[in-house]
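Re: Re: ligand-bound prediction request (bumping)

Still looking for help on this. To restate: I need the protein modeled with adenosine-5'-triphosphate bound, output as structure tokens. Inputs repeated here so nobody has to scroll up.
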Amino acid sequence: MTLTIRNASKTYPDGTRALLPTDLTVGQGEILSLLGPSGCGKTTLLRIIAGLETPDAGTEVRFDDEDVTRLAVERRNVGMVFQSYALFPNMSVRANIGYGLKVRKVPRAEREQRVDEVLALCRLGDYAERAVTALSGGQRQRVALARAMAPRPRILLLDEPLSALDAALRDSLRDELAAMLRQFRITAVFVTHDQAEALAIADRIAVMSQGRMQQVGPPEELYRTPVSSFVARFIGNAMPLPGSIVDGRLVLPGGHLPLPAGTSGTEVFVRAEDVHLDDAGPLAGTVETVAFSGGHYRIGIAGITGETLFATHPGRQAPRPGDSVRLRIDAGDLLVLPQDRS
Amino acid sequence: MRLTLPRFLQLAVTLLTAAFLIVPAIQSIVAGLTVNYFRGLSSGLTLRWVGEVWRLYADSILLSMGLAVACLGVTLVIGVPAAYALAKNPGRLSRILEEFISLPLAVPGLALALALLQLYGSMTGFRTSWTFILVGHVLYTLPFMVRSVLAVLMAMDLKSLEESAATLGASAATRFRTIVVPNAMPGILAGALTVVTLSIGEFNLTWMLHTPYLKTLPVGLADSYASMRLEIASAYTLVFFVMIVPLLMAMQWATDRAQRISR
Ligand SMILES: Nc1ncnc2c1ncn2[C@@H]1O[C@H](COP(=O)(O)OP(=O)(O)OP(=O)(O)O)[C@@H](O)[C@H]1O
Ligand SMILES: [Mg+2]
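Reply:
Sorry for the wait, this slipped through. Here it is.
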């Protein structure tokens, strides 16, 4: 199913403008991630798609060719995984998963067969008869997913499905969830505030900030060609290089950098992995901190900009705090962006 | 464990208190089973007085049970949806409404009865029917049902549960039947037992509302104390105990369960 949203906006009764007019399309079988900091309106948009929130007038939500803007939630046939999972505590795992089929009056034999299928897909076969209160966090998450998928929804909506888990479990379940979503081949919208989650799971990412859609595109595109400093900072933690631009060169306290040709922006950013230690580099600074993190060192350098600039250093040896170093940043790695309107 | 003086005092006070509560009850029960109270146990044991109570007051016992069941039915039908509505719309208005429902708790039963008499006293058919007493009992017990169910509903994440049921295709009525009621069951159970126990034991209000042909169990009890021989009155107490004690125990159990959930 293709989801089309046009001009969607939401103003809460207390006057909070949680979502400003937004357009979005999610293609058949595509997994789209809504990514943004807390309070930017991700859940609001997801709930508008589900039909749990009444959007402002002028909003249009289409499932394929059908306008569902005014269709009640129980008739939209969406599958939703809630942040808290919201499993029914009065039912077993099997009854939870079968609930959607039961209220739709699917005959018993067919219902049992479908539940068994989904149980197997989500590797829950051994727990079918358990009470949901006797499950681990990871198992609960799989039950929530299985319950949403059992009635074969037109679209799957997930609101931070991993955030209720502890950090170690979250990393391992992230890849598992990505694999399961691919297996279902369903159109899905996935809300998260964790960029690693979005990068790992989504085909395309929609970055939101303060109720506004900032940029929508494949993960690589957002990473390599962000359109705003917000996106650059949010995806891959780009660091600002505040300096004046003179004749196509960026003038910093620690030296001059040539800018890529033909740019019109005014703010320059760089990521730590694109800052190289190089004795012949044009920038000079002093090492402030050195942190070893397995495959590489993360080195904090003072004197280049007003703040500490970080470099990811893959070598076997690292300079010590206090050492003077020279840095190189290739012109192609600089992100030159227009000033954010705020 | 050595019996030191403070410990001995503690034990003595505890035993005395227990005796203070239990001895009269035992005495009363025994009195209902002895052939002649004034000659004491030596006169022998008998069930004759219990039989006599049944002969004289069977109507009261049946009326009380009927009233309790009807009262339970009405408080369930009104109280559960009311608690649900209050839980779904938390806010100032709901709090005020909740206090308003609870008002009969603070007003003495006699005053409540007087108000009912003033309001409906002239409607003779209604005034002399058992439903008149039922109205009093419902007013008095409803807050217990509402509060008990409300406490359990507030303790669970009702909104998310209902929303997830809705995305799965359940209409509002289906959600109420399959999600709200089963999950509120411990509260409903605790509320139900409280309502039945209160309705069976209620005296103040019922005494004001009753007519000579409509005596409930406690009103009959007062009547037997006033006009029957001591053995019959005591046997009456025994009957009352037999009915109310299991209810009290079940109520304790259900309330514990409801509290465990709301924690
Ligand atoms: N029922 C409500 N009434 C008023 N304001 C609300 C309501 N729900 C959300 N908001 C506000 O709308 C804005 C967007 O909320 P939303 O829940 O969509 O954010 P989010 O991106 O999902 O954040 P998070 O990552 O913390 O879940 C926030 O400022 C929030 O305070
Ligand atoms: Mg949210």
